[in-house]
Write a structure and sequence with these properties.
Distance between the termini: 27 Å
Number of strands: 0
Strand content: under 5%
Radius of gyration: 16 Å
Shape: flat
Number of helices: 7
Helix content: over 70%
Order of helices and strands: HHHHHHH
Length: 141
């Protein structure tokens, strides 16, 4: 049931992103994206695998959809959560997107800082709580 739910969430996330691609670049580009996406057998194979990459995929794809909408706060929040809990190398994506938001004046420094700090601390608490339950002792990432 968990794998089916995860696969469904990944499909919904990629559908959301495809819609954003179509809105930003036009319907032909959205169709081309969809065709390329569906031709990737390994992506469909991993949709329901309970791996950190698969959990992060769902969040990152939705974050990129928000980025296309120029909604930087939810984008940075999702990327921060995914980086804190699943894949720390996502910080390499957070930096340029945060810098873009600041340079293009789509968000203030304090908004970006507050989003990163609150989401990071909240994500850390969630990670410690869940990992401690699974391992049966207090566990710090």
């Amino acid at each position: 049931a968990v794998r089916l739910l995860l696969a469904g969430l990944n499909i919904l996330a990629l559908s959301f992103f495809r819609r954003q691609v179509s809105l930003k670049f036009g319907a032909p580009t959205g169709i081309a994206f969809y065709i390329i996406l569906m031709s990737q057998f390994h992506l469909a194979f991993y949709f329901g695998r309970t791996l950190p990459n698969t959990f992060a995929l769902c969040l990152v794809v939705v974050a990129f959809g928000y980025w296309f909408q120029e909604r930087y706060v939810p984008c940075l929040g999702l990327l921060t959560f995914a980086a804190t809990v699943f894949r720390s190398e996502l910080v390499a994506l957070i930096g340029p997107i945060a810098l873009e938001a600041l340079v293009r004046r789509r968000a203030t420094f304090w908004t970006v800082f507050r989003t990163g700090l609150l989401t990071g601390l909240g994500s850390l608490c969630v990670s410690v709580f869940v990992d401690s339950i699974f391992w049966g002792r207090l566990l710090w990432p």
